[in-house]
Every structure is written in C-alpha cells, then in structure tokens.
Amino acid sequence: MSDYLLIPDHLHLFCAPYDLKFTVERWMGFWKDRFAKTHPDTGTFQAGGFHHRLQDGESYSQKWQYVRENPVRAGLVTRPEDWPFFGRVHEIRWSGD
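^ that's the sequence the OP posted. Answer follows.
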C-alpha cells in the first residue's frame, strides 16, 4: 500500500501487488474482512469495489491529484490541503526504477 485518502463514505488506496497471483479483489476482501472483525460496529462494506491499474508514475500522479480533490467535490473542505485524512504508507517503486 502506498497513498491513501479516507472520506466519510469510502476509502482510496493506491497499492502495488507483491505477488501477482494474489488478485486485487482478493486483497480487498481480505482487508474488508479484517476491518469488519476488528470494528464490528462500523456497518457493512459495499459488495465488490472499484479498482484501476495504473501504468506509470505519470498516471499515478494524475489519479492521485484527482483523489486528493474528492473532499472538495464532496463539499467537506474548500481546498485539498485542508483535508487531514490522507497520507503515505510507503513509496511504490515502479519496475525499471
């Protein structure tokens, strides 16, 4: 996992697989299950989820900027930098880097 942004109705996670046999769907299911067991009073998750494969650092940067603006589009803040619920777990290294 790398960058993340949490807003009241969903969570964005930017991640890269360590093992290509472990699908994104399986990874999301694992974390939903872990969270639900740890926090049983928080409600339920939507079925499935949405994911998009990024091809390079430029695409990552563009998508991350779009995600950072989600709290503004939702009317939660007036500027992306005012939203406190985001961060970086670690740097994703692109193949060839």
